[in-house]
């Protein structure tokens, strides 16, 4: 009998969706693709489904970094649970596989953060471009 090493088994793609009975505003998050802008930077295409409709966002990696830092400041009680972002790519022109790995990592991060009702604060509103209610 041979043992199968888990590191040799390809990951199964998952799509996290919120329970319909939940009080969370967000029900589904995906990053279906990305675009390289004039070989200068990359913008990730984000689709967010809410209870009121759909949002379409375009964000650079640096905006995710700022967003995560804001979340850590705003919700220190969740600091250990908030996933790390995929590492910065040091290549001037990243490969498709590097960008795909980053896309998947950013999608995992957003699924965790946007589907967690404990984290609905000003950082999320700013990231998605929602106006603050005062």
Automatic annotation (TrEMBL):
Superkingdom, natural source: Eukaryota
Where in this chain does the record put each PX domain?
Answer: 22-134
MF term (GO), any: phosphatidylinositol binding
Q: What is its main location?
A: membrane
InterPro entries assigned to the protein according to its UniProt record, in alphabetical order: PX_dom, PX_dom_sf, SNX8/Mvp1
GO cellular component assignments: cytosol; early endosome membrane
Q: Give the UniProt subcellular location, in the record's own words.
A: Membrane
Specify the protein name: Sorting nexin MVP1
* Gene Ontology annotations of biological process type: early endosome to Golgi transport; intracellular protein transport
Query: From which source organism is this entry?
Result: Komagataella phaffii (strain GS115 / ATCC 20864) (Yeast)
Q: What is the topology of this protein in the membrane according to its UniProt annotation?
A: Peripheral membrane protein
**PANTHER family cross-referenced by the UniProt entry:** SORTING NEXIN-8 (PTHR46571:SF1)
């Amino acid at each position: 009998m041979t043992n199968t090493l888990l590191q040799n088994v390809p990951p199964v793609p998952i799509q996290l969706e919120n329970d319909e009975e939940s009080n969370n505003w967000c029900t589904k998050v995906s990053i279906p693709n990305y675009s390289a802008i004039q070989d200068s930077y990359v913008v990730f295409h984000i689709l967010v489904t809410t209870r009121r409709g759909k949002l379409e966002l375009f964000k650079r990696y640096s905006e995710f970094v700022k967003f995560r830092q804001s979340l850590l400041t705003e919700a220190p009680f969740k600091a250990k649970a908030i996933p790390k972002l995929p590492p910065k790519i040091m290549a001037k022109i990243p490969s498709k596989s590097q960008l795909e790995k980053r896309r998947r990592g950013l999608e995992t991060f957003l699924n965790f953060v946007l589907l967690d009702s404990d984290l609905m604060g000003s950082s999320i509103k700013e990231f998605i471009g929602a106006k603050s209610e005062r």
